[in-house]
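Thought: the user wants the 3D structure for the chain below. I'll pass the sequence to the structure tool as-is, report back what it returns, then summarize two notable features.
Action: structure_tool
Action Input:
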Amino acid sequence: MIAKRRPTRKIFVGKVAVGGDAPIRVQSMCDTDTRDVDATVAQIHRLEEAGCELIRVAVPDRKAASVLHKIKSRIAIPLIADIHFDYQLALEAIEQGVDKVRINPGNIFVKAGQKGIEAVVLAAKQAGIPLRIGVNCGSIEPRLLDKYGYPTPEAAVESALDHIRFCEELGFHDIIVSVKFSEVPNMIRAYELLSEQTDYPLHLGVTEAGTPWSGAIKSAIGIGALLAKGIGDTLRVSLTTPDKTDEVKVAYEILKALEIRAHGPMLTACPGCGRTEVDLLRLTAEVEAALKTVKTPLRVAVMGCVVNGPGEAAGADLAVVGGRGRGAIYRRGKLVRTASEDQLIPALLAEIENWKPDPEPTPEPGREVIPLRVRR
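Observation:
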């Protein structure tokens, strides 16, 4: 049972609402050289197409900061500047018109001190944009490391709360918070502790999660465990991958698996066994490829034999059941057509094209209705 989502404040990043009754937002971060405007914009466009709703770019120096307005003018989603160490870069990013600034309080505070952080907060307040207080396990302030002896969840949460209070004392409340760890148990514990002590929106993530395979698993466990408890308002899946759209795809698979948000179809498939009468690997790969351009939120199943396939796929909106040289298309457990094996994919796409979902009930705040439920 998925817990009811924890109530949080609603913060706007550009025109995109985060927290409150807004959907859980999916974001990513470019791995291009921000100073290369064309390459950065091209990557953002690919991420937009994949469903990314907020995009973050690194701002390592003044040259990168100076081109942020050019990037922002060419994209449709809100632009977030990622700042470390140099608070002056945050001030320049705000001047450039970004929609949000992420600061790492551990390294900015150590280098710039209280006056530097204060300057950033007041500039964001004047510009009317939010800040993300992004605490990472690898850059917690030395005083807290001395206190706790190690980058513990408690140390990360104390860092975040200290900087929240600092912002509040300056009359600033447009805040989103994260406390990321690369170790999943510590990440879960940190967000649990933080969610008990603040109602600001929380940005979830397992930092430095790893490759598309292991990183996706770590992210699904960490982010998924928190979402299942009703914790989290926006998320990024951090993957070491040549294709940054992988981050967005994995994020939506996590949300779809929990039936929180839909972005295109959810694909399920049987693992295959001695009864399989079709090239199941090829068929599943072809269905998956065919669904990449489909935006309709529905459950699609691929089954490898006619023995259990129709029954096991009854919970799907559409199912492809393979046979010996032929296959069948089922709609919510009812046979709608048969076709030769080489015509199964066109037959499935034709059914998707003609799909008309049933009317859905009104969702609870912050949760989209997903037409992926079992219907018998």
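Final Answer: Structure generated. Residues 11-257 form a domain with the TIM Barrel fold (CATH 3.20.20.20). The chain has two domains: 11-257, 266-353.
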